[in-house]
Amino acid sequence: MSEPERKSDKVRRMVAAGDFKSALRIAKDFRLGISKEDSDAMRRGYECMVTSPSFYQSIGIDPQKAARKGVETVLRLYGT
Question: Counting Cβ atoms within 10 Å, is residue 57 exposed (0-12), middle (13-18) or buried (19+)?
Fold first, then answer.
């Protein structure tokens, strides 16, 4: 019987497949070994992709730029 897949391994697999939205959905909640800046970038990137791009735009944050930064962060941390 094999061990269940760890969330960090799942994120690595999703990043390798180019599924950044799903990778960010999981990684945005990681705490251990992740700086506050990286955690914020992933959370904001995911939110700008999925839940509230208009909110971020209304407070002066470019949602596309924030989404790109989230993807760049998850790639740097979990890419191969």
Answer: middle
